[in-house]
Every structure is written in structure tokens, then in C-alpha cells.
Design goal:
Bound molecules: iron/sulfur cluster
Radius of gyration: 21 Å
Helix content: 40-55%
Number of strands: 9
Number of helices: 17
Strand content: 5-15%
Largest sheet: 4 strands, antiparallel
Length: 337
């Protein structure tokens, strides 16, 4: 008999929850996408899952004098990894309950409202950064959703395994403004303004000239607001934990499953080491630090091949923008030497 808890524990995933009826309703009403095959739509349940990832800081040694960087969320293909884990779970559910492939929908970085669904599943709140903030992990998380038919026995298992979960979704940002203060382009000064956000322009191309100064050597991915969040830091950085506790006061309390979560607090390296040990080699690409001159000399086709299978999907990221920006960085380098 399937146990969600055992399955996720075995994968090193500790924060997940059932999707409330409100979350399911929200998924169905807020998207033009068809969330799950029509024949299952009447009775649907599901889960939301958080996958934390390691934030990379500092520089790796490199024989190349100039590097470009990739944000921590895209340095490894965690999206593929999380999808793979959920596919494995889906296969177990299908086998046990005689379901078809189309009976189960997995969503990782799709058009379904993943962030809002995670909030409605009590896995955190939308912070002043506009991102999901989970009290244990902060914002350095990917969200996965899985929808499946509300079969009595399966639903009962899910309810039994989650009814003691006491997560929260009311904002615990308090008076903190770390993300707002740290954003290099003031994109969070009056709520989130996408046209002021570097990440938005890196994903769409056409970044206004005056933002390039702030883009620096980031080829793809700005994670400043993620890194600056004290909830992120308290999980990621053991050294800062005690210091941050003093600053956060009561707002830093994780109210649910305290024993389990305290166990993981300050031991993020164990969580990450375990999660990363399950990544395939192909999922550990392209890495955080990439050789500028080598990439700048590549044709569009060579770049496509270089980034193939990584989290930098060129169905939405404009490759020409990458090429143009790397040319710009090389020229700036030549002018300063
Ligand atoms: S991703 Fe970067 S630019 Fe966008 S809001 Fe966060 S810190 Fe600001
Ligand atoms: S940095 Fe502070 S204000 Fe911003 S999301 Fe995190 S806790 Fe909230």
C-alpha cells in the first residue's frame, strides 16, 4: 500500500501537503490550461511539494579569466529532477489503483498556479519579494503539483498522512524588508514590478540598456531577493542562524511539525547532499559559472547544444539575447584592459 510520507522521506523531501478543495478550485478557475484530463475532472485531489535547492555563493576556480553566472535555481536541472520524482510516485499510484497515464497530472514550472496552490496548501506565504516563502526553506524552493482522481482509498491515505500537518500560510514577513532593500533595480519598491525585474528581462530578452549595469556577469538568473530573505538564509547558512533568530523574533517560528523541522534546521548541507546525490549527471548542468569567451565564440546551434537538457529552456529564453549580451561583456572587458 502506497505511503506518500515514506515515498517522500526516501527522496529527502520533507515539506509537502494535500491540496485543499480551495486549492483545487483555484487551479481549475484561474488558468486557461486544462489541468487534468476531462474524464477525471469531477473528483480531483492532489498534493503540493517543495524541493529546496542549494544557493551557490563565491567563485569556483576556473582557468577562464572571465565567467558568466547562472542563478542557483537554474544551475542544476532541479525542475527535471522534481518532475522525475513525481513521475515515479505517479507510476506507483497508477500501478496500485489501475489508473491510466492521463489520469494523473504533474506540474513543475508550468502554467498552473503553482505558487498560489502552495500557499493554499499551507506551505508558506507570498512574501514581499512576490515569491513563495516557506518558513523552513525560505524562497529557495521549487514547487511541484500533482493532481489525481479522488479515489476513496487513495484519498483516505492522503488525508491520514497529512491531517497532523500544521503548516502556515499567513505572512511572516513582519517588518522585514531585506528583499526590497537588496533588489538592484528597485523592482519590489511598490509591490513587484516585472518591468523593473532583471529576471523578467533575462527570460524575455530586450533588457533596457540602463539595466545592463545591474545585470553584471549574470547570463541568466537573478536570485538576489531569494538570497537576502532571512528565512532562506536561516536554512542555507548555519553560521548566520543564531544571528538571524535574534532579528526575526517570533516571526521566525515554524509552527508545524516542529520536531522534524528543528532537526533539519541548520543542517541544510545534509538535506542538499542527500538530494544532490540523487541527481543524474545530466541534471547537474550547466553549473553556476560558465566560461564567457568560450560561449561567446559559439554559434546559436552550438549554444543550443551546450544548454540542451538544462533548466535554460530556449523555448522561452531568447538565445540571441544571450549571444548579444556575451558580446557586450567581451567588448566591455576589452575596453577596460
Ligand atoms: S529577481 Fe532580482 S531584479 Fe527581480 S525582484 Fe528579485 S532581486 Fe529584484
Ligand atoms: S526578505 Fe523579508 S520581506 Fe522579503 S520575503 Fe523574505 S521575509 Fe519577507
Amino acid at each position: 500500500m502506497i505511503s506518500f510520507t515514506e515515498f517522500f522521506d526516501c527522496k529527502g523531501i520533507h515539506v509537502w501537503n494535500i491540496l485543499s478543495d480551495r486549492a483545487i478550485d483555484h487551479i481549475f478557475t484561474s488558468t486557461k490550461e486544462i489541468p487534468i484530463a476531462e474524464h477525471v475532472q469531477k473528483e480531483v485531489t492532489g498534493i503540493a511539494v517543495l524541493l529546496p535547492y542549494r544557493l551557490i555563493s563565491g567563485t569556483e576556480s576556473s582557468t577562464h579569466t572571465k565567467i558568466v553566472t547562472v542563478g542557483s535555481f537554474a544551475a542544476y536541472n532541479y525542475y527535471h529532477f522534481l518532475t522525475r520524482i513525481l513521475q515515479e510516485l505517479a507510476a506507483k499510484i497508477r500501478a496500485e489503483y489501475g489508473l491510466h497515464r492521463s489520469d494523473i497530472r504533474i506540474s513543475v514550472n508550468s502554467k498552473l498556479p503553482e505558487k498560489e496552490s502552495a500557499v493554499l496548501a499551507n506551505l508558506g506565504w507570498i512574501g514581499k519579494s512576490g515569491l513563495l516563502v516557506n518558513p523552513l526553506y525560505g524562497s529557495a524552493v521549487l514547487i511541484g503539483l500533482m493532481l489525481f482522481p479522488k479515489i476513496d482509498a487513495l484519498f483516505q491515505t492522503l488525508v491520514n498522512e497529512t491531517d497532523s500537518k500544521n503548516y502556515i500560510n499567513n505572512s511572516q514577513c513582519g517588518s522585514c524588508s531585506a528583499c526590497i532593500d537588496a533588489c538592484p533595480t528597485h523592482a519590489l519598491d511598490n509591490g513587484f514590478s516585472k518591468h523593473l525585474c532583471l529576471q523578467y528581462w533575462m527570460s524575455t530578452g530586450g533588457m533596457p540598456e540602463h539595466f545592463k549595469l545591474h545585470r553584471g556577469n549574470h547570463l541568466y538568473g537573478c536570485d538576489v531577493c531569494i538570497k537576502e530573505c532571512p528565512y532562506t538564509q536561516q536554512f542555507q547558512d548555519n553560521e548566520r542562524l543564531e544571528h538571524q533568530k535574534g532579528q526575526l523574533g517570533d516571526s521566525g517560528q515554524w509552527e508545524g511539525e516542529q520536531g522534524k523541522h528543528r532537526e533539519h534546521r541548520g543542517h541544510s548541507s545534509k538535506v542538499f547532499t542527500y538530494l544532490e546525490s540523487q541527481l543524474k549527471e545530466s541534471e547537474k548542468r550547466p553549473g553556476s559559472y560558465l566560461p564567457l569567451e568560450l560561449l561567446a565564440g559559439m554559434s546559436i546551434l552550438e549554444l543550443k547544444n551546450y544548454f540542451k537538457g538544462t533548466a535554460l529552456g530556449f523555448r522561452w529564453i531568447p538565445l540571441n539575447d544571450f549571444k548579444e549580451y556575451m558580446r557586450f561583456l567581451c567588448e566591455s572587458e576589452r575596453m577596460t584592459t
